[in-house]
Design goal:
Strands 3, 5, 6, 9, 10 and 11 form a six-stranded mixed beta sheet that branches. Strands 1-2-4-8-7 form a five-stranded antiparallel beta sheet, with no helix packed on it. It folds into three domains: about 110 residues, Immunoglobulin-like (Sandwich), CATH 2.60.40; about 80 residues, Sandwich (Immunoglobulin-like), CATH 2.60.40.10; about 90 residues, Immunoglobulin-like (Sandwich), CATH 2.60.40. With about 300 residues, the protein is mainly β. The N terminus is likely disordered. It is built from no helices and 29 strands.
Length: about 300
């Protein structure tokens, strides 16, 4: 069966729909307009709705309009849509393993006052429906400060995907084939960047992303440790961290002297405290990146 009792199974989210096919075929008294996107996202049922408008002028008997769709070489009657008097639909279940279908419309109609039973037939041009298995629905947010964790919803994501801000890669976390998240990288605040998902198979456009400025305080201003000794370091931000938390980028010029965990301010929190442990003897700094710039804490580690 190619029909389904669930006519809404293949409704396409507007943000995902490709440009509507600009097919408008006009006969003497009837106009056929294809309203189906050329590319639609895949769905588990593999059922896709094809919609067209069959608009007749006052010379056509409305009850005589009888649209059919010829898809993959087979003919099927179309069903009048509840969304509009001129709209007709057909739900097609694409065979397993297929990602395209070719189709066109045929419409028979009669003129008003036609007593001879003659009908006119109008055919559209051939069209192609393509199924996209990898696409973006939307990002969770379109602006945030450096370090914020943001999710992207879609389909066909892979572990090799990387989110880019223009040409700058962001730390990317694969959550599932339908969800990725990224941490806003240390790019200049106050600018809008092109967001994309890139892997060896190509690039997906996500949209644009605005990076806002935010500053944070670090205390104490200096650390004095013996090898193996620990001291607490507290990071405070001016407003609660967004959903997913805020990652603070930490670098050091004495990596052998510092042992510390990743710094992540939890969602809705305004501070986080992490332990810093002395490693090998040495002196240098910890550098912290925020949207408002960089700050640092001097570190001195002495032998036991």
């Amino acid at each position: 069966m190619h029909k389904t009792p669930f006519p809404h199974a293949s409704r396409i989210l507007p943000a995902l729909a490709a440009a509507l096919v600009a097919l408008v075929l006009t006969g003497c008294n009837l106009t056929i307009t294809n309203l189906t996107p050329t590319t639609v996202p895949a769905n588990p049922s593999q059922i896709y709705t094809i919609t067209a408008s069959f608009h007749a002028n006052s010379q056509v008997e409305p009850s005589s309009i009888a649209p059919r769709i010829i898809i993959d070489g087979s003919a099927y009657p179309m069903t009048k849509s509840s969304a509009g008097s001129d709209l007709w639909e057909f739900d097609y279940q694409l065979p397993a393993g297929r990602d395209t279908a070719r189709y066109y419309f045929i419409c028979e109609f009669s003129g008003k006052g036609n007593s001879g039973g003659t009908t006119t037939e109008l055919n559209s041009e051939m069209q192609t429906l393509r199924i996209a298995g990898r696409y973006v629905i939307r990002p969770e947010a379109t602006r945030a400060p450096v370090g914020s964790r943001v999710s992207i919803l879609g389909a066909g994501f892979a572990t090799t995907d990387l989110v880019y801000f223009d040409q700058t890669p962001a730390r990317t976390v694969f959550e599932s084939p339908s969800s990725l998240s990224f941490f806003v990288p240390a790019v200049a605040p106050g600018h809008t960047y092109k967001l994309s998902i890139v892997n060896v198979g190509g690039s997906l456009d996500v949209g644009t992303f605005r990076v806002d400025a935010i500053s944070f305080a670090v205390s104490p201003a200096a650390l004095y440790l013996r090898s193996g000794e620990q001291q607490a370091l507290t990071f405070t931000i001016p407003s609660p961290a967004p959903a997913g938390g805020m990652l603070i980028d930490v670098r050091t010029d004495v990596p052998a002297s510092i042992i510390m965990p990743e710094v992540m301010v939890p969602a809705n929190a305004t501070s986080v405290t992490v332990p810093v442990q002395g490693g090998q003897a040495g002196s240098g700094s910890l550098f912290f990146t925020s949207s408002a710039g960089e700050s640092s804490v001097a570190v001195t580690v002495t032998a036991k």
